[in-house]
Amino acid sequence: MCVEGVQYFFFRFLLSPSLCFSSSFVSSFLSVEEPGSKVCSAWQASDFLSREQQIKDWSRRKEEVRNYRCSGEIMTTLIHRGRRADVGGNAEKRAEGEEDSVLDKGVGDEDSGDSKDIRLTLMEEVLLLGLKDKEGYTSFWNDCISSGLRGGILIELAMRGRIQLEPQTMRKKRLLDRKVLLKSDAPAGDVLLDETLRHLKATEPPETVQTWIELLTGETWNPFKLQYQLRNVRERIAKNLVEKGILTTEKQNFLLFDMTTHPVTNTTEKQRLVKKLQESVLDRWVNDPHRMDRRTLALLVLAHASDVLENIFASLDDEKYDVAINRSKDLLDRDPEVEAAKASGAEMIWAVLAAFNKS
Ligand SMILES: *[C@@H]1O[C@H](CO)[C@@H](O)[C@H](O)[C@H]1NC(C)=O
Ligand SMILES: *[C@@H]1O[C@H](CO)[C@@H](O)[C@H](O)[C@H]1NC(C)=O
């Protein structure tokens, strides 16, 4: 498995259009942030193909890949997936007696505050979904998760009543034209959220959702704005999950270097999460985003943006998988402008979706 890892590593990075080889990469996979290399969808597809197919496909893709951006093509990838998903069949061994309290919460306001019920932040949930349980790192092919996690930070801050979109005006009607305004800078008790709040507070004039996702990811040509990049995001989120007893920390030797990995040590929370999301598009499907639990809706949007939706549905049988994919596609294909206008409480979720659709 180590050898495979190294092969993936070289395959992934030597062929990567950005050829970015940061020193932090060597110390920890999780900490890799790859500014400017959003080429996810084509690469992600390779995750589900055999090695031979990957190599065959690669030369054809090489050129396409340079032009790929996050999102957009992801659903196509999902629908044409090979059945070789390596997510470890979690949901088969579903824990019993799980409560659905969080699921039924609800359709309230975005300002539901720092509820004690929120065991994990959206960023922690997205990373947990993206991690391979045993290996403890995210797919090497996934270039979307970095910006997806930044989107998660913005939604989490909005849900906690810290930020909001500026009100609609005649000139600024569209979600992506409206700036992100600070509502309260009260600490949220999470390092990444609080660091982002400080950046938001320091920025005058305010910026849009799309610009913030780019700034926080470090995708900017403006050297004065590089300071807004959040660093070591994956590693810091993983550390939180280690503290919460969900992940553990290991050093893995990959022949050329040591790598810090974070295998899942207690699968209860991940199983609960996967089950909640599966149910939201199967048994509990309401075909109306406004009647969905906000955090569930946010998580589906973020899983899509981070290209980890596949991990949620991989354990389903083929028939249910198709239904789940169709319904997710239906949800994510909706027009964010139209949906946001129907209920103001979920504006940030739809703005983040709009930003990913556009990028
Ligand atoms: C795993 O986590 C759940 C709560 O998320 C907890 O109830 C359970 O006791 C934990 N299991 C172990 C073996 O620590
Ligand atoms: C999913 O959508 C496709 C295309 O719209 C359709 O052909 C197929 O029957 C759908 N499958 C299910 C299970 O709904």
TrEMBL record:
<keyword id="KW-0333">Golgi apparatus</keyword>
<dbReference type="InterPro" id="IPR038261">
    <property type="entry name" value="GPP34-like_sf"/>
</dbReference>
<dbReference type="InterPro" id="IPR008628">
    <property type="entry name" value="GPP34-like"/>
</dbReference>
<feature type="region of interest" description="Disordered">
    <location>
        <begin position="89"/>
        <end position="114"/>
    </location>
</feature>
<feature type="compositionally biased region" description="Basic and acidic residues">
    <location>
        <begin position="91"/>
        <end position="114"/>
    </location>
</feature>
<feature type="signal peptide">
    <location>
        <begin position="1"/>
        <end position="20"/>
    </location>
</feature>
<dbReference type="Pfam" id="PF05719">
    <property type="entry name" value="GPP34"/>
</dbReference>
<protein>
    <submittedName>
        <fullName>Golgi phosphoprotein 3-like isoform X1</fullName>
    </submittedName>
</protein>
<keyword id="KW-0446">Lipid-binding</keyword>
<keyword id="KW-0732">Signal</keyword>
<keyword id="KW-0472">Membrane</keyword>
<comment type="similarity">
    <text>Belongs to the GOLPH3/VPS74 family.</text>
</comment>
